[in-house]
Automatic annotation (TrEMBL), chains A, B:
Transmembrane segments: none annotated. GO terms for molecular function: DNA binding. This is Transcriptional regulator, HxlR family. It holds the Pfam family HxlR. Gene3D superfamilies: Winged helix-like DNA-binding domain superfamily/Winged helix DNA-binding domain (1.10.10.10). It comes from Herbiconiux ginsengi. Keywords: DNA-binding, Transcription, Transcription regulation. InterPro entries: HTH_HxlR (IPR002577), WH-like_DNA-bd_sf (IPR036388), WH_DNA-bd_sf (IPR036390). The keyword Disulfide bond does not apply. Residues 14-113 form the HTH hxlR-type domain.
Length: 156, 156
DNA sequence: ATCCTGAGTCCGAACTTCCTACTCAGGGGT
DNA sequence: ACCCCTGAGTAGGAAGTTCGGACTCAGGAT
């Protein structure tokens, strides 16, 4: 069972491609979304997503393997011990990915009930949004943001 | 050829799921990444990604269909007219998605050559980063950001 | 001892992706 | 006019994934 993700597009020098190696398979990001919604158990994931159990077992395995989720034993009142899956710090660092997808979907594929999730400063309850900012915190308009080659670029 | 994307997880009330319907298939986000890198032509995409031509044709078609790319005719010196694929405004709005994946990959799956792309204010060249901010522009630490149900949540 | 349940595994059918070969629309060369 | 060339596909079969249902296994409950 070598598991061997397919090395998409040979370009492992790209951090987007490296992220997609972990997160880019069907269902993976929806599993992560459910984890952010507080689901932890195998049956919670199958019930909320309708994913086949073998695929779920496989995806949970790779997410654990890559440190997005961790397995943790739990025991329910009068049940035997089982494992649940909780977001690690690396998993919680996917919040911007979730927020970016959600913002794009809200803007460009709206449904009747548009934003289902908002972000806030957990301490104060102030609303928060994912934006590009300068180092000093000035919010930039997305249209003004450009890219430039970083230090890790191949010097070809 | 009904094209019928699989309605992942029945939950179309989720903007993440709706985004993934367009963007979640294998190769799609790498094609978008290449589009941000300035590629526009069929052969540029096959050359840089190594994707099979039939899959590329299919993905470009759905990206056009959903308004992420648009087809535009071009004519090279002494060649016949062909079509190229350029990001629409909706496509350019995927920059936060790209940046979020890139940041996660840089942090959690680093390679020797870590950040290959940086973001900047296109006018001034000041560095920019994708962060959660309050309405007034105070940058929040990711660990302090939480979620709350938005107005579009099912009132169940 | 037997039943029950959550969490899997197994397996064959259905669907995707991959790879190679073919097509098609012009433009250029002769 | 005819043939060759190239970019951009399409076609078709092999290989790889996903799906859904049946099976397993480890306890605890009865």
């Amino acid at each position: 069972m070598p598991h061997m993700t397919a090395l998409l597009g040979k370009d492992l020098n790209c951090s987007i491609a490296r992220s997609l190696e972990v997160l880019g398979e069907k269902w993976t990001l929806l599993i992560v979304r459910e984890a952010f919604r507080g689901r932890t158990r195998f049956s919670e994931f199958t019930d909320s997503l309708g994913i086949a159990r073998d695929i779920l077992a496989n995806r949970l395995g790779t997410l654990v393997e890559y440190g997005v989720l961790s397995r943790r034993p739990y025991r329910e009142e009068g049940e035997r011990e089982r494992e649940e899956y909780v977001l690690t710090p690396a998993g919680r660092d996917l919040l911007p990915v979730m927020a970016a997808f959600a913002a794009w979907g809200d803007r460009h594929r709206p449904s009747e009930s548009s934003p289902t999730v908002l972000y806030e400063n957990a301490g104060s309850g102030e609303l928060a949004e994912l934006r590009f900012t300068t180092a000093e915190g000035r919010i930039l308009d997305l249209a003004d943001v450009g890219t430039r080659p970083g230090p890790g670029t191949d010097p070809v």
